[in-house]
Specification:
Elements (H helix, E strand, L loop, with lengths): L2 E7 L6 H11 L4 E6 L6 H8 L2 E4 L5 H11 L4 E4 L11 H10 L4 E5 L11 H18 L11 E4 H6 L9 H11 L4 E5 L15 H19 L1 H30 L5 H40 L10
Length: 309
């Protein structure tokens, strides 16, 4: 089987050589690909010197790099890892072996039990738990560390993944794709360390947190439209009823409707509530068709051999 290690990179000259060498040692039969994303430092030269196959993606953002890597690279098993040197290459064989032994489509390297305090700050840990919990509540409780950048994939997963995100929200999209199609997935605990000295994180806590939250909302609307628009309809109906009750009470006592603009507004909001509910039913059928098409694209790819095959 062909094994490929995919490393998205942006300004990682301090770490990338160590990452490439570590994965060459951990997975000696794998092809190591480094995809540079407009680095302003010597990332490309350092990666080439370390022995990696270096390619470039001009569209800025990790999601754009992931989309390009998944489209370009042909392999049976893919290991994707950030190029910042925080993930343990020694865990890669375990991720790959679990993928093969249990016939899975994605194995996530969970960082939640790291002992390095500087590696996973309390704020990032809390944000990760909140975002992962939200996705679990909406789509299903299968992941404890949805935002990990360390994963192993089957060819089936990679070639059926409709990558649309541009930035760090790509991990959320990967998780929801697996949950939406109910693909076999698992997590493996892996060490997580601090960046090498001189290396700077590209993650912007609040900006990227907002972008990930917005992606979750978009995926909620796209993948669970009936629930999304039913909740919206219930909210609009509640607003309409709360505004309309005083009008009904006044009409019952006086037989008059003195606040005509409010009555018109109440009616309009209730109409919007019913339209939202109808939209939910229509889009649910559309989503079912899209999900079936993604499932067929997934099934069109060859499966991995099981243990002993």
């Amino acid at each position: 089987m062909k094994l490929a290690v995919l490393i998205p990179c942006y300004n990682e000259e301090k770490a990338i050589a160590g990452v490439v060498r570590d994965f060459q040692a951990a997975l000696p039969d794998a092809a190591i690909y480094v995809y540079d994303n407009n680095s302003a430092d010597d990332t490309i030269a350092v990666a080439k010197a370390a022995g990696a196959i270096v390619r470039s993606e001009p569209l800025q953002g990790k999601g754009n790099v992931v989309r390009r890597m998944f489209a370009d690279i042909d392999a049976d098993i893919y290991v994707m890892v950030d190029g910042d040197g925080t993930y343990a290459a020694a865990s890669a064989p375990q991720l790959v072996q679990k993928l093969l032994d249990e016939h899975l489509d994605m194995v996530v390297g969970s960082r939640l039990k790291t002992e390095a305090a500087d590696a996973f700050r309390a704020g990032h840990h809390l944000g990760n738990r909140m975002l992962t919990g939200t996705v679990s509540w909406i789509f299903g409780d299968r992941f404890a560390d949805m935002l990990s950048g360390y994963r192993a994939f089957s060819r089936r997963f990679v070639k059926s993944f409709p990558a649309v995100s541009a930035g760090f929200e790509t991990e959320t999209e990967l998780a929801v794709h697996a949950l939406s199609l109910r693909l076999p997935v698992a997590e493996v605990e892996t060490p997580y360390g601090a960046r090498p000295e001189g290396s700077v994180s590209k993650l912007r806590t609040y900006r990227d947190g907002i972008r990930i939250s917005w992606m979750i909302l978009q995926l909620f609307r796209e993948e669970r439209p009936l629930i999304f628009f039913s909740l919206l309809a219930a909210l609009l109906a509640a607003i309409s009823i709360s505004l309309g009750i005083p009008l009904l009470v006044q009409y019952r006592h006086t037989g008059l409707v003195p606040r005509l603009p409010t009555a018109v507004l109440v009616t309009a909001i209730m109409v919007l509530a019913f339209l939202s509910l109808v939209a939910g039913f229509v889009l649910d059928n559309v989503t079912r068709g899209r999900r079936e098409a993604k499932r067929l694209a997934y099934l069109a790819q060859p499966t991995l051999p099981g243990p002993g095959e």
